[in-house]
């Protein structure tokens, strides 16, 4: 298990979808999970260690690029989970 | 942006893909992958960072002795054993006794995507690829002066096997995008649950790397073959978990006996998980054999030969139903059972549908419909 100060961030444009995913991840016995908008994830992270970043399917390429640049500067070792809309539902 | 574009644009990134809406099994797999590949090196099964080997079986004493013997040298060690046997614990024990002042760095070489593994192991120079905004040391460099533990070496991609061989032979690494050879003072310990000679035979593992790694092999027996370790492991886990959670838990002698008789396919990891579950579900309680989950309770070697076959796929042991490992279709199974019961009822009712329906407690129309659906004949008793 990760240490107590680590956090998984869910970045999504739609708050409801982000909250749903947060609940699912928490259900899987994970450490602290927080949701964030694309432009505020660094602030939301605070002093926590970033365990992983879930990137929602509805973000624009510009948002994704900004997030990737931010991660590269912050800690390139952080796992990034890119979610893609599935037609199969 | 699709995955291919992302990988091309950000080759440094540890990217994982997940379909949305999210399926729980897929999410679980991704989280597991992240933990395995990127999580902090775990002290294995709640044993902390001490790397202490628990147990006093002949096999554990042998492993302890071998670890102590090899620790002070720089010899590469290959630890072999089934998943969950505690290979990382042994590696830590070797590191702790080695006197090396550098860190113990662990990586699961099978869990990291091939395109990222090189950068992970050897690091990269700034500008080596798009997105490599800063120079980053790889795990080999991080382990300088210490021990580098390469878990699941049997799953390492072929390309990386060549590069690892070079490092082991020359003791230098080269960062991705770099031109300088960097000497690394690192003691390498590798581990795998795979049958490496078989992988060599299949062309999936390099023979020269195998010989280079197995300078000092240590084989850990599965838990089922060292049952004397079970009781000390149980008490170690109970002590540690209860201390952490400020609860108490007593494990009865009958429960210990059951635990000793179980086959433990998941080895020590499975045992640790069970104890953790018991600590959560029975805080301040006493665990008897009856409190143990059914695979453990039912794994009795002295049971009379059972299992009774129901239909084609299911077996029962006692009052428990065991599902086949390769999947199961409940609807089909229930239909099979229903068909058999209707056939018997019809036979006993001499083919009289009304009487069979009464016997089954269903309406005549319903039974006719089922007879039609299953293509059954109205057999009379004794007629086949």
Structure characterization notes:
The complex is a heterodimer of chains A (89) and B (384). Chain A is α/β, with parallel strands linked by helices and 89 residues long. Chain A is built from 3 helices and 4 strands; from the N terminus they run βαβαβαβ. Chain A has helices at residues 15-27, 41-45, 61-74, and strands at 6-11, 32-36, 49-55, 79-85. The longest helix of chain A is centred in the C-terminal third of the chain and has 14 residues, at 61-74. The mean pLDDT of chain A is 82. Chain B is 44% helix and 14% strand. In chain B, a hairpin with a 2-residue loop joins strand 14 and strand 15 (320-322). The longest helix of chain B is centred in the last third of the chain and has 19 residues, at 330-348. The model of chain B is unreliable at 40-50, 299-313 and 379-384 (pLDDT under 50). Classes of the chains: A alpha/beta (89), B alpha/beta (384).
Mean pLDDT of chain B: 81
Instruction: Return Rg of chain B in Å.
Output: 28 Å
The overall pLDDT average of chain A reads: 82
Largest interface: A-B, 34 and 34 residues
